[in-house]
Amino acid sequence: MDVSIKKMRWLLFLLGFMKIPMIRYTRPKLLAIDDTTVRVKIKLRRRTKNHLSSMYFGALSVGADIAGGIQVFYFSKKMDRKVSFAFKGMNAQFLKRAESDIVFESNEGQKIQKAMEKSLKEGSRINDSIMVEAKNDSGEIVATFEMIVSVRVN
Fold first, then answer.
1. What is d(CA 63, CA 133) in angstroms, rounded to the nearest whole number?
2. Are 115 and 148 in contact (CB under 8 A)?
3. Which of 13, 14, 92, 128 has the fewest CB atoms within 10 Å distance of its CB?
4. CATH number for the domain running over 5-153
5. Alpha-carbon distances, residue 85 vs 31, 43, 127, 128, 153 (angstroms)
6. Structural domain boundaries of the chain?
7. What is the spatial distance between Cα 43 and Cα 137, in angstroms, rounded to a whole number?
8. Could you report the per-residue pLDDT of 50-74, keeping only the tens digit for each?
9. How far apart are CA 81 and CA 25, in angstroms?
10. pLDDT tens, residue by residue, 112-135
11. Vertex 39 angle, CA 125 and 126, to 5°
């Protein structure tokens, strides 16, 4: 089954509207999604700024959450399967202040797909770690996130 970026943007909107209000509050934009890569942008604005006029770490965490998690939904649509998904842990490294719009990128699509296929085959929950990078407008990495994905495909 082919999954379009338009469909995934609609899914992200619904997820923010119905299930996870923090997603709606930060208003992320899905820039790209395919079998390997996800790119999500969160703008630096009043809602996402801290008292130092840089992006609040909570907003950075929302961006990492989306970049790491939306691909699970992408593959569940491609596989036409229901999925139970959560993050089990996160390790973040904040390298410099995020003083512009931030693009979150994960290139771990193949890893997520393999975990989902393994879960389907074994009928069990699979945990795996993926990396997400947060980059500013200049392309400099401002933060890295190691997200522990816990997925079960039904």
1. 10
2. no
3. 14
4. 3.10.129.10
5. 22, 26, 10, 12, 9
6. 5-153
7. 10
8. 999 999 999 999 999 999 999 999 9
9. 29
10. 999 999 999 999 999 999 999 999
11. 5
